Amino acid sequence: MPDFGVLAAAGMGAEPERLLLVDEPGERWPDVVAALVEAVDLVLLRPPAVPSGAAVRRLSALARRHGCVLALSGPYGRQWPGVQLRLRVAEAEWAGVGDGHGLLSARLARVVAEGRGGGRSAWVWLPGPDGTVTAETTMRPALEVVG
């Protein structure tokens, strides 16, 4: 993932010394991912091409066996069969800019989770004014008029 923001991840609490980044694994990317799945708890993957059925089955089975979460991103990640949960940002608002000037300080987003059991959404600070990722707790749902 060439646009992965290590500095942003560190700012949200990730420990840079615990990140393992693989630069351009090439055509044998499924083998690289297989090695990572056996060694770490979370692999963030942006497949460079449509994965073959055999690669999907192999990597999914390895992830289950080793207790690794395989998080997919990008256009080819959407085509991965058997995905149990999909997350997407449905709406977003930025805070910090006023009258054409200022610094962006926070982003409030409605994250939608869709999966086999239906769907849910929640407003989340990505990040909040203090730099952390937290659920928005002050928003109330709009009143519904029943008539």
Question: What's the SSE pattern?
Answer: HHEHEHEEEE
Radius of gyration: 19 Å
- The overall pLDDT average reads 82
Strands, count: 6
Q: Strand count, sense and closure of the main sheet?
A: 4 strands, antiparallel
In DSSP terms (H or I, runs of 4 or more residues), the helix count works out at 4
The chain-level structural class is: alpha+beta
State the end-to-end distance: 50 Å
Question: What fraction strand?
Answer: 25-35%
Detail the poorly predicted runs. none
Q: Which word captures the global form?
A: globular
- Helical amount among residues, as a percent range? 10-25%
Strand order of the largest sheet: 3-4-5-6
Question: Any key phrases for this structure?
Answer:
about 150 residues, 4-stranded antiparallel β-sheet, globular, 6 strands
Please tell me about this protein's structure.
This protein has 4 helices and 6 strands; from the N terminus they run ααβαβαββββ. The chain has helices at 6-11, 29-37, 53-66, 74-77; strands spanning 42-45, 69-72, 85-98, 101-115, 118-125, 134-135. The protein is 22% helix and 32% strand. The protein is of the alpha+beta class. The protein starts with 5 loop residues before the first helix and ends in a 12-residue tail after the last strand.
